[in-house]
Write a structure and sequence with these properties.
mainly alpha, about 80 residues
Length: about 80
């Protein structure tokens, strides 16, 4: 029913790198979206929502791990 939780203390640093790269990519993509002269749902909202969804997919497990197993490493 639910996907297996795969974030551990051992791979947390790698997950952090992935999230930081997604944030960087999103910033670049948002700049491109803002340059669209005639924005509409298909060329602006949909890509923006997909970026948000991807970031949430990778960040939510880190946030969850911090909530249930708070440590200095998860707070980084």
């Amino acid at each position: 029913m639910f996907e297996e939780f795969r974030i551990t203390d051992e791979n947390l640093d790698k997950q952090k790198e992935i999230v930081l790269q997604i944030i960087k990519d999103n910033e670049e993509n948002i700049e491109k979206l803002l340059k669209i002269e005639y924005k509409n749902y298909d060329n602006f909202i949909t890509p923006y929502q997909l970026m948000h969804e991807k970031l949430g997919f990778y960040f939510s497990p880190i946030s969850h791990l911090n909530s249930v197993k708070n440590s200095k490493k998860t707070q980084e």
